[in-house]
Amino acid sequence: MAKKSKVVKELKRQALVEKYAEKRRELKAKGDYEALQKLPRDSSVTRLHSRCLVSGRPRGYLSKYKVSRIVFRELAHQGRIPGVKKASW
């Protein structure tokens, strides 16, 4: 389980990105890079990092399922992910 502070910080970043998305798009279209620099740093999309929805883990993230590899394995073994079954040959 990730630290709660890291998960909360990432959620705040996501909120900032959504808040400034339209303004950022307009400034880029105009070519006003000085105004872009005055926006908050965390309002940039590139500062976001994908985290597992269940555990908050930042590494081993499977974007299709939005969970980490560890949580994915647990859910797959429990049969909670439709269409996924353990390979055997």
Short note summarizing the structure:
With 89 residues, the chain is mainly α. It has helices at residues 4-30, 33-38, 69-78, and strands spanning 61-62, 67-68.
Textual characterization of the structure:
- It is a single chain.
- The chain is mostly helical and 89 residues long.
- The chain contains 3 helices and 2 strands, in the order ααββα.
- The chain has helices at residues 4-30, 33-38, 69-78; strands spanning 61-62, 67-68.
- The longest helix has 27 residues, at 4-30.
- The two termini are 33 Å apart.
- The model has no long low-confidence stretch (mean pLDDT 95).
Spatial extent as radius of gyration: 18 Å
Biggest beta sheet summary: 2 strands, antiparallel
SSE sequence, one letter per element: HHEEH
User: What is the strand content?
Assistant: under 5%
Assign the CATH topology of the largest domain.
Helix Hairpins
Indicate the mean pLDDT. 95
Low-confidence stretches: none
Structurally, the number of domains stands at 2
Distinctive features:
89 residues; mainly alpha; Helix Hairpins; 30s Ribosomal Protein S14, Chain N; 2 domains; two-stranded antiparallel ribbon; 2 strands; elongated; rRNA-binding
Write the layout of secondary structure elements.
Layout: H1 4-30, H2 33-38, E1 61-62, E2 67-68, H3 69-78
Antiparallel strand pairs: 1-2
InterPro entries: Ribosomal_uS14, Ribosomal_uS14_bac/plastid, Ribosomal_uS14_sf
Pfam families: Ribosomal_S14
Keywords: Ribonucleoprotein, Ribosomal protein, RNA-binding, rRNA-binding
